[in-house]
Amino acid sequence: MKLESRSSAPASGCELTAEPGCELTPAAEYTVDALTAAYNQTRVDYIVPMPMNVSRLQAYIDHYDVDLGSSVVAHAGDEILGLAMLGVRPGHSWITRLGVLPVRRRNGAGESMMNYLIGQSRALDMDYVILEVIKNNVAAHRLFLKLGFEETRELLILRRPPGPPLAEPPGYRVMHGDEDQALNLLERRRSVPSWLDELSSLKHVDGLSCLEIELDDGGGGWCVYQRTAFQLGRLVLQTEQGDPGLVAQALMHALHTRYPAHDTKTENLPADDRHLSGLMAMHYIESFRRIEMRLDLRQA
Question: Which fold has domain 158-289?
Fold first, then answer.
């Protein structure tokens, strides 16, 4: 694949790659249209297909604080080899959308881009770098371990098809809230978020709402979620009192009673989250898992 929209700015970082003729250029030197084409070409055989169009990639950049000046495109002349992006927030950075053309893999481009982004993180004085890799993506997982990343936890991607809830939870009372109330609840969050559902990410998205429930037995909690025209997502659950499994059942019963026609997809729920049993009781299913990994930069 060729990208014609690269500027004439000099490339840098050739010394980082084992592939002769490889160059690294900041992603900011490309249009979002070109980056979208690059991304889709590097993911044509990915374990979990995640195609992008231009508007979706721009939203991804905006929502997750991707710094295109610190992100990178690997190329040989006008031929793209790969792409990797860097999210930047105070104290930590996030490597995402790493991909290499299938026919150009195993020649050093991926490792070169990873080293570039780690170097950018050091230059930005980050404390640590995080990333997620799909479980069973053996080659990528092996590369990240080689570069010093350590596993922190497994994260679940869950889905629920449209339809009203079938199981009946214990009796409860529900109150629905708007975006401002949702953000106020998130300020009280006790669980450790991933980059995708950090408060900084959720403040960028439209359509946030919330609901709070009180069970007849005295338990209670809340859920923040995003609603679009056809889908619910970005679930954040917290139990304030009582059994998290029962609280989750009541929360999801209230949510899907109100929006029975919506498909639901939520990402990066920790595998050990105590609400999981309640979600499964409400007919959520696991789509796949990611492994979250971290590289501490203050140790070196």
Answer: Aminopeptidase (3.40.630)
Spatial separation of the C-alpha atoms in residues 212 and 173, rounded to whole Å: 8
Sign of dihedral through CA atoms 158, 164, 168, 169?
positive
pLDDT tens per residue across span 90-147: 999 999 999 988 756 767 788 999 999 999 999 999 999 999 999 999 999 999 999 9
Q: Is the pTM of this model over 0.85?
A: yes
CA distance 84 to 91: 20
Start and end residues for every CATH 3.40.630.30 domain found in the chain: 14-148
Looking at domain 14-148, which CATH architecture does it have? 3-Layer(aba) Sandwich (3.40)
* Residues β-bridged to residue 264: 160, 232
Number of DSSP helices (H) and strands (E) in the chain, helices first: 8, 12
**Residue 159 in contact with residue 263, Cβ under 8 Å?**
yes
Question: 259, 176 in Cβ contact below 8 A?
Answer: no
**Interatomic CA distance for residues 20 and 23, integer angstroms:** 9
Q: Which strand ranges, in their side-by-side order, compose the sheet holding 220-227?
A: 23-26, 72-76, 79-89, 92-100, 128-134, 285-296, 150-160, 263-270, 231-241, 220-227, 208-215, 172-177
What is the Cα–Cα distance from 108 to 114, expressed in whole angstroms? 10
* Measured distance CA(78)–CA(30) in Å, rounded: 12
